[in-house]
Amino acid sequence: MKIANGTDIIEIRRIKKCIDRNGDKFLKRIFTDNEIRYCESRKFQKFQSYAVRFAAKEAVYKALSDYIDFEYSWRDFEVQNNALGKPKIKLNFQIANLESIEISLSHCKEYAIANVVAIYKEN
Predict the structure, then answer these.
(1) What is the pLDDT of residues 63-119, one digit of tens each?
(2) Residues 6+ away with beta carbon under 8 Å from 90
(3) Residue 57 among the catalytic residues
(4) Would you call 62 a catalytic residue per the annotation?
(5) Is 93 helix (H, G, I), strand (E, B) or coil?
(6) How far apart are CA 108 and CA 110, in angstroms?
(7) Domains of the chain by range and CATH?
């Protein structure tokens, strides 16, 4: 078994500034329709929700980058929540030997952070 880790932290105001400046053009380039619906439903915490999902996509890429042999899109990684609200990652592609991906997300007023652990079967 091989374990790969990815972590990312971002200032929420940077994401807010990108959204304020570029609107739907930015949102549609980075986030899936499901992610946009979820974040917009968060009303008072929508920028935290966007920022933590952006950090998650960065962290996922860091954990998977040794195994991605093609040009990916931000929308190829989707952050979802299970019935209890626990975040999970949906990939729109397959990676050989990838057994599972675990993710943890957190944010406060100023920062959002994501940590991803990818577990691979050894050849």
Answers:
(1) 998 888 778 889 999 999 999 999 999 999 888 899 999 999 999 999 999 999 999
(2) 77, 78, 79, 80
(3) no
(4) yes
(5) coil
(6) 6
(7) 2-120 (3.90.470.20)
